[in-house]
Amino acid sequence: xxxxxxxxxxxxxxxxxxxxxxxxxxxxxxxxxxxxxxxxxxxxxxxxxxxxxxxxxxxxxxxxxxxxxxxxxxxxxxxxxxxxxxxxxxxxxxxxxxxxxxxxxxxxxxxxxxxxxxxxxxxxxxxxxxxxxxxxxxxxxxxxxxxxxxxxxxxxxxxxxxxxxxxxxxxxxxxxxxxxxxxxxxxxxxxxxxxxxxxxxxxxxxxxxxxxxxxxxxxxxxxxxxxxxxxxxxxxxxxxxxxxxxxxxxxxxxxxxxxxxxxxxxxxxxxxxxxxxxxxxxxxxxxxxxxxxxxxxxxxxxxxxxxxxxxxxxxxxxxxxxxxxxxxxxxxxxxxxxxxxxxxxxxxxxxxxxxxxxxxxxxxxxxxxxxxxxxxxxxxxxxxxxxxxxxxxxxxxxxxxxxxxxxxxxxxxxxxxxxxxxxxxxxxxxxxxxxxxxxxxxxxxxxxxxxxxxxxxxxxxxxxxxxxxxxxxxxxxxxxxxxxxxxxxxxxxxxxxxxxxxxxxxxxxxxxxxxxxxxxxxxxxxxxxxxxx
Amino acid sequence: xxxxxxxxxxxxxxxxxxxxxxxxxxxxxxxxxxxxxxxxxxxxxxxxxxxxxxxxxxxxxxxxxxxxxxxxxxxxxxxxxxxxxxxxxxxxxxxxxxxxxxxxxxxxxxxxxxxxxxxxxxxxxxxxxxxxxxxxxxxxxxxxxxxxxxxxxxxxxxxxxxxxxxxxxxxxxxxxxxxxxxxxxxxxxxxxxxxxxxxxxxxxxxxxxxxxxxxxxxxxxxxxxxxxxxxxxxxxxxxxxxxxxxxxxxxxxxxxxxxxxxxxxxxxxxxxxxxxxxxxx
Lengths: 533, 281
What we know:
The complex is a heterodimer.
Chain A: H1 8-24, H2 26-32, H3 42-58, H4 65-79, H5 82-98, H6 107-124, H7 133-148, H8 154-175, H9 177-182, H10 187-204, E1 235-242, H11 248-255, E2 259-266, E3 270-277, H12 280-288, E4 292-300, H13 301-310, E5 319-324, H14 327-335, E6 340-343, H15 352-361, E7 366-370, H16 377-385, E8 390-393, H17 399-407, H18 415-426, E9 430-436, E10 441-443, E11 446-448, E12 453-457, E13 460-465, H19 468-479, E14 486-491, H20 497-510, E15 515-520, E16 526-532
Helix pairs in contact in A: 1-3, 1-4, 1-10, 2-3, 2-10, 3-4, 3-5, 4-5, 5-6, 5-10, 6-7, 7-8, 7-10, 8-10, 15-16, 17-18
Chain B: E1 2-6, H1 13-18, E2 22-24, E3 27-30, E4 33-36, H2 43-52, E5 58-60, H3 64-77, E6 81-85, H4 93-102, E7 109-113, H5 118-133, H6 138-149, E8 152-157, H7 162-166, E9 184-190, E10 193-200, H8 203-220, E11 224-230, H9 234-245, E12 250-257, H10 260-266, E13 271-277
Parallel strand pairs in B: 1-2, 1-6, 6-7, 11-12
Antiparallel strand pairs in B: 3-4, 3-5, 8-9, 8-13, 9-10, 11-13
Helix pairs in contact in B: 3-4, 5-6, 8-9
């Protein structure tokens, strides 16, 4: 059955399929990444860029073709990482530009959208090199133009584009000597091919058959030899610049004085900039003079280089990424040694991307993630899978549990030792929370009226009271064992400090054999989070 | 031969007398008062003073002359002297002893840096005294002392890092400063360095970690020796001793009180355990 046009729904499906297929193949892409710098992150970068695109598309309320494509373009631009990711974002931006105002795409539209994308991608890169993803995209677009002249079935068009992309990928070593030396094809180009192939597989209905390259397939992997080259511009620097009237050309002209591999994408209000430079501080100072700089990422490529090829074992330290809600909690987590704290909790789940970014940002290549909520755990697990770093996600499901784990953490201990100590630490603490019920409910023999404070521990409502303080006391009493020593209260942003202090004093009287401590958690939703240990 | 040390061993007084160990005291200053550690003030008495005082204590090392005075009677008779002192990274006591040795160019005197403090040093002294008592030569015992310095470890906890910080002995445990949660830092003294181990909330977990850490040592080696010091924390210490005694492979447990100088630097509520990893057979 011929497919004659592409609607918003179909576009969404193929984007998802393409992104999914790139994700499935990212470790292979990482493995063959040698150009421009063999830092082994092309697969991860492209995956994260596409995930950002997909997230924007999935968040859409009103769905038209134009908004869908624009969302994908915007998302990928905001989430773009690395050279290949930025080029990928440009391709989507090019498609978005070409289909402005359309509700359906026909074969000829797709061909011209790709031509537009090619132009945009070449423009974004200051020194475009052939034998890279750029070549693959260009040759694919040329094939699309050719085929679309006679063919109207999108399935056939896409199939032909995939074939053209593959033969272009195969030729990349002929164009780029570094690839030939290493005996690999271009990782970015291959990533683009996977993106198309994922779409083709969806249309052919061969999803999940694993017909091409399996994630762990060693057949197609080639051992990559280190390439000796001097890196004058050793710092790979990326950031987002927000301004009012940014001039891309003027910025590029200035940046060229400071480094190479410059990529600048965006518009007059928002630009994403990538540069390899010897002085990242100078670049950032210049950028700050133009507007607001954010999402800064600076990597020492020399370090990436050596760590990838010399297998050093000196990096034994561990970093911790915690997910928690509330400014008080954030401060406590930072003070206890968490290198990065991501906002997130019951009412506000962080995205996989947020967690991946945090994992990638912290100093160590061994990272322990404390999700601190059961709804955050899956995203953390997914994030762990998307980075080349060694990641362990602990199953902490509350802020106090996470904190107990964190207190056992030592930044210079080995990864295994930290995992061991932290796993041993958090299970010793019991936690619960007191929050206002939004509606009346009967839980067992507990009658809850809307607006009452309910005490929850172990997933069950333990008590209910019109007074938050009374609910805290009853909850604590229900959680307390004779062997417990400390009751800790973390008051939320809806509770006045004075009230919390009075409650602490009252509880110290009531539970006189125990120590009652009070901290500001600042969390929304839960009036008090309490722990007993 | 004569074994001399300083007043930071925290060994029980009866053991010091039994093995006839010479003790050169450090001096403690609290407010306007000063005491010769070990001789002029009792650990319990000092502990309660410390708790009541609003001043922070300071300590000063013995002078070289103090060591000269201690060495002189033995040097005069040609009796060999083994002097083992508090870690040189924590105190100038070892330096004073070395300078004193230079005053007796021909006398057989060996000065050893224990790399330890408190019961860690006490353990080294005790084992050397036993070896000497068994009739080992002076050279043998001195060599043994050096070997032990590298093989004794101490884990200890403090109620607050204030004392360590004010006394300048915080070392890498500095990393624990600034933690907003109230914690009992668990620290490690090995090879003369104070290192942070873990921030601990409850006494129960603290004791469990002590036992785990000692068990780890016992697991790797055929035999460990252990000594324990406590201050204002005797209930916890009783409990701890009980649990240590259940570990198989533990051949010995000594228990003593933290003396004035160590208490001045860890504060009230310190608890420590020192043990020796037995040498590989």
